[in-house]
Amino acid sequence: METTQGRPARLRVGVIGPGRVGSVLGQALGRAGHKVVAASAVSEASRERVAERLPTARVLEPAQVAEASDLLLLTVPDDALPDITEGLASTGADLRGKLLVHASGAHGYGVLAPATLVGALPLAIHPAMTFTGRDEDIDRLANCAFGVTAPEQLRPIAEALVVEMGAEPVWIEEEKRTLYHAALAGGANHLVTLVADSASLLSAAGVPEPGRMLAPMLSAALDNALRLGIHGLSGPVLRGDAGTVAGHIEQLRENAPESVASYVELARLTADRAINAGMLKPEDAVRLLDVLRR
C-alpha cells in the first residue's frame, strides 16, 4: 500500500453494507480526499442511501465492489461479518494488497482471516459513536474516538485513516476487543433504555414533559460520572436509605413490574461499587442489601 508521508495514498473506496455506519464512514473518507467508487446495496433504502450520501459510487455486486476498490468497507451487522468475509474470499475476487476494513466493535481483525489468507490487509476501526441515520451523523465523527485493531505493521495505516476522518484512534488489543465493545454497548445502549424507562415512569407519575425534567439532572449526572467515576454518585443507595429503596420497589411492582428486575440489579451493583469505594457505611449497606434481596 503506497503512502504519502506516513498517510494512506488517495484510495478508491468500496462499501459493502451502506447502512448508517457504512454510509457515514464512506462520506468521511470522501471528505478526506479518497473516492467512493462502488457500493453493494440490496434494499431500496440502501440504494437511496447510496444515492444521497455516496453519489460517486456505482451500485455493484459485492465481488465487483471488491475488484473496483483499494479500500473495502465491510459495514455489515456483527453476526454477518464472518459469512460475508468467507463469501468474498471464495468468489475469486482479487483481494491482494487491498485494505479490508470493518467497523464492528465486537470483532478484531481475526474475523477477516479468510480474506487475509488470499492477500487482503485487515483493519478493524470502530467508531465509539451512536448513529441514527440522520444528517448530523457525519458531524459527530469529528473528535470522537475509534477503537483500532490491526496487525502491528498495518497499525500506522489504520490510525492514519481515523485521523483523516477527524477522529482519534485508540489502540485496542485483539484479545480485548469484545470486552471493549461490551463496555461501550453497556454504557451507550443501556443508557438509552434507562432514560426511556425513567421518562415512561415520570409520565405514569403525571409529569407532562419528562424530558424537560430529566435533561438537567441527567446531564449533571453524566458529567459527574465521566469526571469523578463512582465518586460522582448521589441518591438513596449512597445514603443507605433502605426505606426509600423499598418504597421504590413496591411502587414499581404495582405500576411497572417490568422495571423491577433492572432497578434491583442496578441498585445492587451501585451498592457494591459504593461499598468498595468506602462511600457506604457497613451498617447502612447491610440494611440496604437486605431490602434488595427480598
From TrEMBL:
Residues 5-127 form the Putative oxidoreductase/dehydrogenase Rossmann-like domain. InterPro entries: 6-PGluconate_DH-like_C_sf, DUF2520, NAD(P)-bd_dom_sf, OxRdtase/DH_put_Rossmann_dom, TM1727-like_C_sf. Residues 144-268 form the DUF2520 domain. The lineage of its organism: Bacteria, Bacillati, Actinomycetota, Actinomycetes, Streptosporangiales. It comes from Nocardiopsis codii. This is DUF2520 domain-containing protein.
